[in-house]
Amino acid sequence: MSVDLPPKIRERTVSKARTLLEALPFMQEHWGKTIVVKYGGAAMERAPLSRSFGNDLALLQHVGIHPLIVHGGGPQVTEVSARLGLPTTFVGGLRITDGPTLDVAKMVLAGKVNTDVVGTLLGCGVQAVGLSGVDGGLVMARRREPPDLGFVGEVVQVNGAVVRALMDQRFVPVIASIAIGDDGQAYNVNADVVAAELAVGLSAEKLVYMNDVPGLIGPDGDLLSELGVQEALDLLAHPDAVDGGMIPKLESAVRALKAGVPRVHFLDGRVEHALVLELFTPEGIGTMIAVDAPGEEGTP
Ligand SMILES: Nc1ncnc2c1ncn2[C@@H]1O[C@H](COP(=O)(O)OP(=O)(O)OP(=O)(O)O)[C@@H](O)[C@H]1O
Ligand SMILES: [Mg+2]
Predict the structure, then answer these.
(1) What is the pLDDT of the chain when averaged over all its residues?
(2) Which of 22, 142, 203, 278 is deepest in the core (most CB within 10 A)?
(3) With a threshold of 0.85, does the pTM exceed it?
(4) 188 in ligand 1 pocket by Cβ < 6 Å?
């Protein structure tokens, strides 16, 4: 028996079906792939946006993508340090980390922020599991120098076994950016660097940085929508193109691209459903840096 719908309702339902089907080639393209998302900035700090992020992740997972989240928390570490009377100093976008600051970073990142992110994701139906780079020796590091920044680590190795086991069971790992040395010393590692190293170690298809800016801004103040590795290196060498937290972000992007991650995206975390828009629609948002010639994103 067929049911005749009024024309207006029929139009609406058909257009919904069309929208879903338009996303199908993108879903097929990303099925079974690993995507590493560095979750920071505005998306993390504002409740409606964090729910939008959680819902996006639920969708990603249900269409067969394996997401892994690395979260930031720089402002939260700075805030708790200030409450404890500890000064905060950055050099080249990296936090100088003495013993007490390392303790704050461990407490805030692996404690509060990690628990909050996992809680938000669980509230959106995502089976999130919180870890830091210390668990299972996931992110091994050594003291980064020169210059001496204290307990700031540089990543020497990623042991993906623990997160692969979780992802095989459809859990979404949520990683705080604390790493461990082979002598058991913990290190504070910039979350962008951890995300890039995990993307490389897990052979991710994409590395996505969620920002509190529209993307990578060029020296003229315009948003750069697509660029290649050499252009990214030129920006890093440019005296006034990139500063602060964007330095380790762009350096990590280049490192990931050179080590085999095909695409890195800088998305505006203030845009609702930024992840779904980027992955499942032809309209890419923010900045894409690609190893291959840019210009073909959107064609599945
Ligand atoms: N050329 C540039 N384009 C875009 N942002 C830039 C640029 N140069 C510097 N920035 C700054 O870099 C910041 C992003 O890095 P930041 O480390 O502050 O954020 P995050 O990495 O998202 O957060 P967290 O470090 O807590 O994880 C932007 O808010 C912007 O102020
Ligand atoms: Mg940062």
Answers:
(1) 92
(2) 278
(3) yes
(4) no
Q: Closest-lying ligand to the alpha carbon of 42? A: 1
Q: Residue 174: which H helix or E strand, with range?
A: strand 172-176
CA distance 66 to 83: 38
The mean pLDDT value for 141-161 works out to: 94
Which uninterrupted H or E stretch holds 140? strand 139-143
In a domain, 296, yes or no: no
Q: List pLDDT tens digits, range 202-247.
A: 999 999 999 999 999 999 999 999 999 999 999 999 988 999 889 9
List of residues 6+ apart from 62 with CB closer than 8 A:
none
Within a domain: residue 300? no
Q: How far is CA 161 from the centre of its chain?
A: 20
Q: Which ligand is nearest to the CA of 243?
A: 1
With a 6 Å cutoff on the Cβ, whether 214 touches ligand 1 is: no
Q: Are 109 and 132 in contact (CB under 8 A)?
A: yes
Q: Which atom of ligand 1 is nearest to the CA of 248?
A: 17
The total domain count for the chain is 1
Ligand number nearest to the C-alpha of 76? 1
Nearest ligand 1 atom to the CA of 217 is 3
Check which CATH number belongs to the domain holding 196 and give it: 3.40.1160.10
> Does a structural domain hold residue 192?
yes
Give the per-residue pLDDT at 48: 80
Q: Is the pLDDT of residue 293 over 70?
A: no
What's the gap in Å between 246 CA and the centre of ligand 2? 7
Residue identifier of the C-alpha nearest atom 6 of ligand 1: 246
So what's the pLDDT on residue 246? 92
Residue 134 neighbours by CB under 8 Å, 6+ apart: 110, 178, 179, 180, 186
pLDDT level of residue 42 (50, 70, 90 thresholds): low
| Residue 92 Cβ < 6 Å to ligand 1 | no
Kindly tell me if the per-residue pLDDT of 89 is higher than 80: yes
Ligand 1 atom with minimal separation from the 269 CA: 22
